[in-house]
TrEMBL record:
The lineage of its organism: Bacteria, Bacillati, Bacillota, Tissierellia, Tissierellales. Pathway: Amino-acid biosynthesis; L-arginine biosynthesis; L-arginine from L-ornithine and carbamoyl phosphate: step 3/3. It comes from Gottschalkia acidurici (strain ATCC 7906 / DSM 604 / BCRC 14475 / CIP 104303 / KCTC 5404 / NCIMB 10678 / 9a) (Clostridium acidurici). Its EC number is 4.3.2.1. CDD domains: Argininosuccinate_lyase. GO terms for cellular component: cytosol. One of its GO terms (biological process) is L-arginine biosynthetic process via ornithine. It is an enzyme of class 4 (lyase). InterPro entries: Arg_succ_lyase_C (IPR029419), Argininosuccinate_lyase (IPR009049), Fumarase/histidase_N (IPR024083), Fumarate_lyase_CS (IPR020557), Fumarate_lyase_fam (IPR000362), Fumarate_lyase_N (IPR022761), L-Aspartase-like (IPR008948). This is Argininosuccinate lyase. It catalyses: 2-(N(omega)-L-arginino)succinate = fumarate + L-arginine. Residues 361-427 form the Argininosuccinate lyase C-terminal domain.
Length: 437
C-alpha cells in the first residue's frame, strides 16, 4: 500500500520503488515510530480532533503492532518505509479509523521525531559505555601502577607511571562523554507538529507531545524542525573523536605488545593467529578498531556533504542520514565493547617496563633540575647533562652508574645527594610530579 497514490496515473517503476525505499534500514526505527504515533494520537484526542473511542482503537492497534514485531510475529517488509509500514498495517488491523492516525502530521516531522528519539536513546547508551570504559582504564592503571618510560616522538623521554599513562585515556573518554551529553542536550527538542514544513490548521498541542515523549520543549521553527540534522552531525563528530581516541590507544597496544616492546600481553581471547606462521599472535582487535576509525570519519564526511547543498525544508537527500548514522553507531559501540573487554584481560609486564626505564637516560632532565637547584642556569645545565649522556654512552652505563668523580669531571656542582635526586622512584616525591602517582 502507498500513502500517496491519489494524484498518480501510472504505477511506480520497480527500479524506482527499490531505489526510493528506506524500509530495509529504517525498520530499525519501528519502536520510536510507534511510540511517537501513540503520543500523537493522545494529543489529537486531547485537542478534540479525534474522539476518545477513536483514540482507544488506534492506540490498541499500535500497541499490538509493537507487540507482534517484538515477538517476531510480524515481519517488517513490503512497504516504502517504516512509517508507511506501521500505518498500513494499522489500517489492515482496525479498518478505516486507522486512516485518521496521520491527521495533522507529515512523514517529514514523523521521521525527524523518530531519528531524534533514536539518537537520544543510543547517544545515552554510548555515554554509558564511555563511563564503563573509563572505569576499566582506571582500574587497569591502579592495579599496575608501575614506573615506565614516557615517550615523545616515540623516543624514551621521562619516567612516568603506567597509571598516569592510562589515566590520560580516562581523561579523553571523560571529555568524549561530556561532548556527547552536550549534544544530547542540544537535540532535546521535539519536531512533532511541524507538519511537512508549515504546521497545520488544526489546533494541536506540540508542548503536550514534546513532554509525553520526554523532550524539554518543542522546536522553535517548523522549517528548521523538519530539516535539521545538526544533531546527527554532532553525534557523528563525537563518534569520530571517540574513534580517534580508541585508535590511538589501539596503536599503543599494538606497539606495546610487539616483541620489540613486550610492555603488555593481549589476552589470547582478543588475538588471532597466522595461517602460515605458527608462532604468530596478532593484535587483531586493536588493529580492527584502528581500521574502523576510517569508516566512522567517512560517515561524518558523507553526512556533512549530503547536507551542504539542501534548500529548506525537507528533501529526500536526508533519507541518507540513516545508513551512515546506524553504521557509525554500530561501529563505535562494537569498538567500545571490545576495547573494554581487551583491557579487562590485559597483562602488564612490570619487569620489562622497569628495565626500559633504566635504559633510556630517563632521569636526564632531573639531573639538569638538580644543577638548577645548585644555581646553574637551566640552559647551561642542559649542555652539561648532554655531555654526561655522551660519557655514559661511551661507557655503556646509565647516569646513576657514574661515580661522583666521573660526574665532577664534567661539573663540580655534583655531591652525594645527586643519586637520591635522580632515583627513578624518588623522582615522584618532587613537586608537581607527585601527581604522576
Ligand atoms: N523515508 C523518509 C526519510 O527517511 C521519510 C520521510 C519521507 N517524506 C517524504 N515526504 N517523502 O527521510
Amino acid at each position: 500500500m502507498k500513502l500517496w497514490g491519489g494524484r498518480f496515473q501510472k504505477e511506480e517503476n520497480k527500479l524506482m520503488e527499490d531505489f526510493n525505499s528506506s524500509l530495509p534500514f529504517d525498520k530499525r526505527l519501528y519502536k520510536q515510530d510507534i511510540t511517537g504515533s501513540i503520543a500523537h494520537v493522545q494529543m489529537l484526542a486531547k485537542s478534540g480532533i479525534l474522539t476518545e473511542v477513536e483514540k482507544e482503537q488506534i492506540m490498541s492497534g499500535l500497541e499490538t503492532i509493537l507487540k507482534d514485531i517484538e515477538e517476531g510475529k510480524l515481519l517488517i517488509e513490503g512497504s516504502e518505509d517504516i512509517h508507511t509500514f506501521v500505518e498500513s498495517n494499522l489500517i489492515q488491523r482496525i479498518g478505516d479509523v486507522g486512516k485518521k492516525l496521520h491527521t495533522s502530521r507529515s512523514r517529514n516531522d514523523q521521521v525527524a521525531l523518530d531519528m531524534r528519539m533514536f539518537a537520544k536513546e543510543n547517544g545515552q547508551m554510548v555515554a554509558d559505555m564511555l563511563e564503563d570504559l573509563g572505569e576499566t582504564i582506571k582500574r587497569l592503571g591502579e592495579e599496575n601502577n608501575y614506573l615506565m618510560p614516557g615517550y615523545t616522538h616515540l623516543q624514551r623521554a621521562q619516567v612516568v607511571t603506567f597509571k598516569h599513562h592510562m589515566m590520560a585515556y580516562n581523561s579523553m573518554f571523560g571529555r568524549d562523554k561530556k561532548r556527547l551529553l552536550n549534544c544530547l542536550d542540544i537535540l532535546d527538542e521535539s519536531p512533532l507538529g511541524c507538519g511537512a514544513l508549515a504546521g497545520t490548521t488544526h489546533s494541536i498541542d506540540r508542548a503536550y507531545t514534546a513532554e509525553k515523549l520526554g523532550f524539554k520543549k518543542p522546536v522553535d521553527n517548523f522549517m528548521d524542525g523538519v530539516s535539521d540534522r545538526d544533531y546527527l552531525l554532532e553525534m557523528l563528530s563525537s563518534f569520530s573523536i571517540i574513534m580517534m581516541h580508541l585508535s590511538r590507544l589501539s596503536e599503543e597496544l599494538i606497539i606495546w605488545s610487539s616483541q620489540e616492546f613486550r610492555f603488555v600481553q593481549i589476552d589470547d581471547a582478543y588475538a588471532t593467529g597466522s595461517s602460515i606462521m605458527p608462532q604468530k599472535k596478532n593484535p587483531d582487535a586493536a588493529e580492527l578498531i584502528r581500521g574502523k576509525t576510517g569508516r566512522v570519519y567517512g560517515a561524518l564526511m558523507g553526512m556533512l556533504t549530503t547536507m551542504k547543498g539542501i534548500p529548506l525544508a525537507y528533501n529526500k537527500d536526508m533519507q541518507e542520514d540513516k545508513q551512515q548514522f546506524f553504521d557509525a553507531l554500530d561501529t563505535v559501540t562494537a569498538c567500545l565493547s571490545i576495547m573494554n573487554e581487551m583491557l579487562k584481560t590485559l597483562k602488564v609486564n612490570k619487569d620489562v617496563l622497569r628495565s626500559a626505564v633504566k635504559a633510556g637516560f630517563l632521569n636526564a632532565t632531573e639531573v639538569a633540575d638538580y644543577l638548577v637547584n645548585k644555581g646553574v642556569a637551566f640552559r647551561d645545565a642542559h649542555k652539561i647533562v648532554g655531555e654526561i649522556v655522551i660519557l655514559c654512552e661511551s661507557k655503556g652505563v646509565a647516569i646513576e652508574d657514574l661515580s661522583l668523580e666521573e660526574l665532577n669531571g664534567v661539573d663540580p656542582n655534583f655531591t652525594e645527594d645527586i643519586y637520591d635526586f635522580i632515583d627513578y622512584d624518588q623522582v615522584f616525591n618532587k613537586g608537581i610530579k607527585r601527581e604522576l602517582l
